[in-house]
Amino acid sequence: MNKSYISQGQNAYLRKVAASSLLNSVVSALATAIFLPLVIGQIGMDNYGIWAVLGLFVGITSLLDFGVWKSLVYFGARGQYSFSQLFSSAFVMCFVAAGVFSSLLLVAIVAGMPVFGDLVGNEANLKWYLAVAGMLIVLSGLITNLARGALESKYQIHWVNIGFALLTFLQYAMAAIVARWSHDVRLLIEGTAAVYIVVLLLHYASIRIIIGVEWSRPSFEIMKAMLKYGASTFLADIPSILLAPSLSYLFVLVADKAGDFGVFDLSVRISTLAMSALSMMSAPFFAMVAGAHADGQEMVRGLMGRYLRLNVILGALGWVTFFFVGPFLIKAFFPARPDDIHRATLIILSGAVLVAIMEPVTRMLMGLGRLHRLAMVRFAMLFSALFFVWFLNSRLPLERFSIACGVGYLVCAVGLLWLNRLEAWGRDYLQAK
User: Fold this and answer.
1) What is the pLDDT of residues 295-317, one digit of tens each?
2) In whole angstroms, how far apart are CA 282 and each of 117, 161, 300?
3) Could you say which DSSP state residue 295 is in?
4) Is the Cβ–Cβ distance between 322 and 271 less than 8 Å?
5) Please, what's the b/e burial string for 311-328 (b: 16 or more CB within 10 A of its CB; e: otherwise)?
6) Which of 242, 273, 234, 277 is nearest to 404 (CA)?
7) Is 366 left (phi over 0), alpha (psi -120 to 50) or beta?
8) How far apart, in whole angstroms, are the C-alpha atoms of residue 17 and residue 30?
9) Cα–Cα distance for residue pair 272/349, rounded to 1 Å
10) What are 215-256's pLDDT values in tens digits?
């Protein structure tokens, strides 16, 4: 990307991103508000908590990715290799990662390890439904992330936002239909895996049509380069990847009521919706910074400053609105334990919104290759959350894990603010490119 592209094309592109981010937020919020109450009303909070265990596999997907999709964005934006070879090489690495994970999971279950804690209990074959669906979700999620990375690297991230909205809508709509027809949570588990496969096929079709990606012979040289960059991004990302899944999994292991985990999962989902509404608007800056030259850096930096100010306003308005209006909305949509849901969500949201506000700084650091600084902040976030899980062990699990999650996000936001003040925005790096 050169200076002329930035000055002529970026406004139209960013408008597309903003519009698609708004669409994703609206569709996700409506799907959550309309379909999830129907699901919980039909199957109950306990069965919802069991179904929500599948969310752990979504977090595992990000962990197994090992930064490959971000390598695809980085090298794709720089035009250093054939893009078809990049994608094909990344595809092979993700397929191998999914195979290794599936094998280890099967061995653990056959060996009788309590992989899903007491929430599954003595259900005859429920653990196998969760395991098989989880393996399909991991494989579909890894390849879908590659498709999204391909679109982002070619400045087509608005299609990524549309894909996120489609996934949320299809997943929740499917759950509402299945729950209306049957109260068997196993059908919900199977349906969720099917939705992920459908979305995978749609994403793969989109990159063939929009970008024209063709299958090419994988290259070991490209794999090595992607793994090298991916290892750096993975080190920076692993705390964020692990935060929600690790807290959720620890909750699964210590909780004796699936309903408590269902409340925590709902609170995390609502907080994630709020984060996505702010974070996705900043997504283009990764590719823009990675592809920028010294002559275009000030324009990108100016854009980032405006996005930060806008995020502060939107984030503050969103938190205040939820504080006052949230109790009435949650009671209307989730009449089962509304006070618990609002309290837990408010605690998590207090830190999560601040992290979303600082998302432009995160994207800037990724594009500049300042991954060690980002890793430092995110590890502080993860360790803070785990410390509070241990420190608050005398409290009930729902309160204990909600506070730990909120504190972790708060630490991350403070660290990003500190890095933004210290960062000279990589002028030496850009001038050397």
Assistant:
1) 445 666 677 777 788 888 888 89
2) 38, 12, 12
3) G
4) no
5) beebbeebbeebeeebbe
6) 242
7) alpha
8) 20
9) 8
10) 888 888 888 888 888 877 777 777 877 787 788 888 877 777
Q: What is the pLDDT of residues 174-197, one digit of tens each?
A: 999 999 888 888 899 999 999 989
Secondary element (H or E) of residue 207: helix 185-210
The torsion defined by the Cα of 225, 227, 233 and 239, in degrees rounded to 10, comes to -170
Name the maximum alpha-carbon separation found in the chain: 64
Nearest-angstrom CA–CA distance, 145 and 148: 5
* CA 211 to centroid of chain Cα atoms: 23
pLDDT in tens, 338-385: 899 999 999 999 999 999 888 888 887 777 767 778 888 889 999 999
Amino acid letter at 114?
P
CB atoms inside a 10 Å sphere around CB 41: 16
The structure tokens listed for 312 are: 């502060």
Residue 11 confidence (pLDDT) above 80 = no
pTM for this one? Answer: 0.70
